[in-house]
Amino acid sequence: MAKKLKEVLADAGISMDLQSGGKAPEMMVDREVKRAPHPRVKKLKDIYMDTLSSANDEFTYWYTREYMMHDSEIPVIRRAKALKTAFAHSTPAIYPGELLVMRKASYFRGSFPMPWLSEGFYMAHEDEFYQEALKRGSASVDEHSKFGQGGGNVTKSFGKVVSIAGKFGVRQEEIPAMLKLAKMWYGKSVDDLGNKYEKMVPEYKTKEQIMRSIICMFDSGYTLPQGREVINYYYPLEYGFDGIIKMAEELKAKVAGKADGDGMVGMNRLYNYEAVIIATQGLQKWVNNYAKEARRLDKITKDPKQKEEYKGIAERLEWIEHNPPRTFIEAFQMIETIHLAVLNEDAISGMSPGRMGQVLYPYFEQDIEAGRITEDEVLELLELDRVAKTSIDCFASTGVVGGVLSGNTFNNLCVGGLDKDGQSAVNRLEYLILEAGITMAMPQPTLSVLYDEKLPEDFLMLAMEVIKCGTGYPAFMNSRTAQEFLTKQYGVEGMNLEDVRAWAIGGCLETSPGVWKPLHLNGKEYWIPGGAGQPTSVGVHFISMPKVLELTLFNGVDPRTGEKVYEPHNKKLGTYEEVWEQFKLYWQKTCEVLALTNNIQHDIWRKNNMAVINSYLKPDCLDKGHLINELGYRYNGTFSVESAGTITLVNSLAALKKLVYDDKEVSLKTMKEAIKDNFGFKDAREVNSFSLADQEIREDAADKWEKLHFKALQAPKYGNDEKYVDDILLAWENFFCEDATKYESLYGFKMYPCQISVSTHGPMGSATLATPDGRLSGTTFADASMSAFPGTDRNGPYALLNSAATWDQAKSQNSQLNIKIHPTATRGIEGSKKLLDLTRAYMRKGGFHIQYNIVDSKVLQDAQKNPRNYRDLMVRVAGFTQYWVEIGKAVQDELIARTEYEGV
Amino acid sequence: MLTSEYAHGEKKEEVNWNKGELKALIFDIQGHSVHDGPGTRTTVFMNGCPLNCIWCCNPEGLFHHPIMVFRESRCVCCGACINACRYGAITISEDKKLIHDRNLCDVCKTTDCINACLHEAASLSGKYYTVEELMKIFQRDRQFWGGKGGVTFSGGEPLFQRDFILEILKRCKKAYIHVAVETASCFDTDYYMEVMNYVSWVFTDIKHMDAVEHKKLTGLENKLILKNIRTLAEKQDWDGFMVPRITIIPGLNDSEENIRATAKFVKEIGLEVINILPFHRLGESKYRQLGRTYKFAEQKPPSNEHMLSIKKIIEGEGLVCFVGYETPF
Questions:
Q1: Is A772 in the B-facing interface, judged by CB distances under 8 Å?
Q2: Which of A267, A423, A874, B258 is the most buried (most CB within 10 A)?
Q3: What one-character DSSP code corresponds to residue A470?
Q4: So where are chain A's domains?
Q5: CA-based nearest distance A2→chain B, Å
């Protein structure tokens, strides 16, 4: 008998009662409709949309003034005092309608420079310090990074507003003070001091050349020395600020004058605890100033509802200034305060709240049970948090903010994962977090699902529904793959199975170690996860793999600048193996030199600019009496070697192997000529598009290289489940993952591979000539590390995912695969299920990360032409979410070109 | 999607005229198909069809050999193909556009123009696959199907290449692969029933209930089709699932009379569902690329309201009706 419909629907998990068309469960139908945020949230969002990134120098001034006053102090005390004074003098800014308050600086999108890290880059172009910085080479990357036009970036000066670093607006009258403050740090900043000592590395000259040729993007020690880590909110939640001070006082008394067997740094514990007390007092004053501001606003406000809200804000702040929070909203305010405090302590991108839903769950559970709050009120707070997090700006040079981050600050919020006992950690609050991602579609906090087979099906389906809203999040990260990596990397520091499960994503997609801590609330104990590791994505930053290959082919000389970077190898490169071996040698030389120089920069940072606040929050600093600089964190082996342009390298090697060595279609000499001549095409900058598809042929070149270029484009490409090229990827991964562990960080631990390009594939591509795979000069590399080069994955998503799973991704801290899917392939409940099937299959094959961008390329093209009409449009690029209009043009071009998988 | 993406990048090879080993001509293979049966599937589009429906949206599927498709958007008018063509079939018009004499193309058994094109404007649609090659793709793809997915054979008409389809179906059965077909059911009944032994899910077209109209629209009468559908539906030991599909083409087969007749027939043979699909003209670009004109280029798809009114008629006959591709499967 033919099957009955009832059986078929039952197979698909649908009850026959739903009748034709498969009416969806109500919960789902709801979500298919785009819902609006709560009215107050909408108002605050509108303010955000109309606000420009603004910087001032209030914090800078007070910090510098206090710091300079204590030039004979012990560095950690000096730093704590400077921080205390700066926090205590920060002007509060509260906006009507806010429930969770406090901001980085006194603007809605405020931030400030930290010249103690690097003073050169925000100086006026004609300033002599800037010229000095230029000569050092590291500034040249700024010229290759362009911010997106539009959005909230102040790309050009106007009226009395001066544009700084291509993003921030500063009042004209503040400029002289800002420059004066900067000058006070000349020769003293981490950048300057680090440079002084890194020059003592015998091969420093090579490092300089590497930076100038943009083989590497950015020094590590003074650009964004912290971040890409998971914050830990535990101590303030459990003890409150007064409790922390009390604890530090007691511990201080215990260790004063004692080395306790540690003749090197044992005595430092006294000063460290003192610094904890000083810095915490600064935070209390800061909170108190906000409370006073709320009281002031209450007095001058007439609207009774708004008055009540100001009163509530003041009461909550006055409470958490001293005590541990008691309710959900107090706890939420506390973590907002802590988050901003940490971001103001240092130049930080990627300070992730981590598994916030699990941290706040105790308060949520008890408040809901007691009827103190409703789910709708919680949703509103979560929406407000999205406005607050999106308004966070990070002040750094254009090169860093535009080229790497696209203005994004990566406050990555994770949901899912396993709890301490190995069960699904998903809770009801995390459903609401996903929901707020739909109702309040703003880029931050970006969302990540820590995928595990144990997560509930309806939760995963809800995550799919969020993806389908076109927000670009959540990304899926594989909990099992991460746990294998963590075991491998942190086993030596004693990481056990429980701690392995406490991980979360720090920054855009860095696997970061965590711990469990017991939180007590009304007599009930909850184990909450939090960060316990040093920053990641520090160490050797983004090395342009295609550029290293270019220098391999050109005997150590950068053909773009004509300068010698590496010692010439003088080899004939007569076989593919010889090219591969030489490439590895140059790669190793690059890592070696950069590891040494960056270690020195970080060492200066840890001596003069160590974290105090972020540091004591993390286990086990308070227990040990040592901060980050003295290995106070539980996990310290977090430094990495970062690659960029993986797939462009792999495709280039495949093309070389095929055309030059296996098929002998062309000689290496001719291939090099073609590369130098850009296969007869114009320069990408001339065409003003960084997408390969838009490049134009030069008239004078006629058809000189046409055939070769065609063959290069036709050579085997990654992403097609083709062994020829996948084997090259495998060889690279096996080499890289092993090689990275040969370099040692300043903390004495092995480095590991990190494979995210963030946005560096744009600017790095812009400094790289044509590549043997047919990519033209100046155009972007393939993004991420596992995405195919735009348009070259011709065998569909299954083949791409199969190619990506060629290697053991647990060997690396991460890998990254972005895939654009047309909405037609995901429609309806069935579409969601099928997208989940695809995701699950990749995870089962050991894939670490997958992220979907469900948009129409026509929409994107129109958005590029008419950015003003698309201020709301969000895209996910290379591991994060951002407003389309804020993204640099090169990355926009690449997104448009990326292959779409159409389901119809 | 117009040319076989799997065939891409192999332009150098001479066209293989399917001799020796058992091979099938296939014009596309799509992973992550979400509208062609339960779960997520790999859909294989096979060449050849006994019918000749005037609105066909996959005209390249009607060919029994690989065929050159021309994408004008990629053409830079370099003239390389003109020089390469040994039949002189390609000329340039005054407004700098290539003109292909498709009558000459049809006798050509080479890929000269395709080999000469450096801009991928001329490419080949249709590639021969052996059973082994196809099975290798399925074995790879099955990891991504999830619990309910499988392979869907579509076309063209998947039953047209008889020896091959029987062989690949047997192999799929052995490999525990769930198989669906999208067929017009226009074959001799013995063969049709033999194939269905290996198939768990059938989408079958019912283009028109009236034999004369059917012949006008498709070139053949519908007697055999209806017989096959009935035989399969009534077969006691077949435990598959059959979904009759009607593509609604305004003015041609959407009369209440025809819809009601179809529904009555479906009900009578003991089936419960009809899936109605709105006509679309996406195939127009394919006709252009094949150097043909599409008579339905101006035909608008039926409105939602119209689709819903047809749904009502079908439901009135006591059947379940799914509209469009978004079924709950």
A1: no
A2: A874
A3: I
A4: 44-207
A5: 5
